[in-house]
Amino acid sequence: MCLGVPGKVLEVNDMTALVDFWGVRKQVLLHTVDSPVAPGDYVLVHVGFAIRRIPTGQIEETLAFYETLLRTAEEDLMAADVQEEMGAGEET
Fold this sequence. Notes:
Elements: E1 5-13, E2 16-21, E3 24-29, E4 42-46, E5 49-54, H1 59-71, H2 77-87
Antiparallel strand pairs: 1-2, 1-4, 2-3, 4-5
Helix pairs in contact: 1-2
């Protein structure tokens, strides 16, 4: 199964963006995202690529779902995958 993680775009520089995932900031490639993104947008990221800009009306629901996953990480393999995806290549 492919799993994407939502994050908030902080900065955009050509075809990369700095994205915040619950306090973890990572550089993300924008080559495959479905529409242009700007700071303040939320994107769904998989293996370092933004694959989809999350529509404004879906942000709250999407974040709530992932926050539930993160709280149940010890019990749920999918939640562990989300945490692994967020932590891969962590920046300081």
